[in-house]
Specification:
The chain is α+β, with helices and mostly antiparallel strands. It is 16% helix and 36% strand. It holds the Pfam family CFA20_dom.
């Protein structure tokens, strides 16, 4: 599927926020459901895969009739939520001996079992969302003594919520990872806070500035009353002399 694609740094095989998240996936559900939901913790879309039996509810890539993903990048990264139920996933890998090896990870298994063509390993998940990073080349080298060539198939079983699944050429820090591939995107600063920080403080004069206070306005009625009060005693005095 990705054999003729340019595989540089990151190759995304599933994104719950895309317009067609299941474009390269086949989904099988029995006594369960598969749907896209809005997760309250990350406030983003996530794909939920829930079933009574993990073996009968799963999603697999690539979808038929494509035979292989043909992804050369050796690191598998999954952003998944622990639903506190049984959960497992499988990765089918082609090594340099042209043998298909299947790696199976589950949270209900405590020990590791290695067979000729398959390996089962325990998977420990913390509460809520998890950032799972797997070095597939290292697993193949330790289990079978061979070299990783490409990932052929990826199968996710119930019960889980998935935000994104991608492959990369090496492990990157959170700052080096593109924003769309992170579990929590970077917080955008508040625009009002930015504007307040850009505002310059008001200039304070070095010497006080003298200002003239305007006279208090006087009402015309008050002026007439004042004149009457001043003229009234004088009129009384003139009348007594006559």
């Amino acid at each position: 599927m990705f054999r003729n694609a340019f595989q540089h740094r990151f190759v995304t095989v599933f994104s719950s926020a895309g317009s067609k998240p299941l474009a390269i996936w086949d989904v099988h559900t029995k006594n369960g459901h598969s749907r896209r939901v809005t997760d309250e913790d990350i406030r983003s879309l996530a794909f939920e895969l829930i079933g009574v039996n993990v073996a009968t509810t799963y999603m697999v890539a690539p979808c038929a009739p494509c035979p292989s993903l043909s992804i050369k990048l050796p690191f598998l990264v999954m952003l998944v939520k622990n639903m506190k139920k049984f959960f497992c996933f499988e990765v089918q890998i082609l090594d340099d001996r042209q043998s298909l090896r299947r790696l199976r990870f589950s949270n209900y298994q405590s020990g590791t079992r290695v067979d000729n063509f398959s390996s089962c390993m325990p998977l420990s998940l913390t509460c809520n969302w998890n950032h799972v990073q797997l070095n597939l080349a290292e697993f193949i080298r330790r289990a079978y003594g061979t070299n990783y060539v490409e990932t052929v198939r990826l199968q996710i079983h119930a019960n889980v919520r998935i935000k994104r699944i991608y492959f990369c050429d090496q492990l990157y820090t959170n700052d080096e990872t593109p924003a769309e591939l992170r579990l929590f995107p970077p917080v955008r600063p508040n625009r009002m806070v930015q504007l307040k920080a850009q505002q310059k403080p008001a200039a304070i004069p070095h010497e006080p500035i003298e200002t003239v206070r305007p006279p208090t306005p006087v009402d015309a009625a008050d002026i007439s009353n004042m004149l009457e009060n001043e003229l009234a005693p004088a009129q009384c005095a003139v009348g007594t002399d006559g």
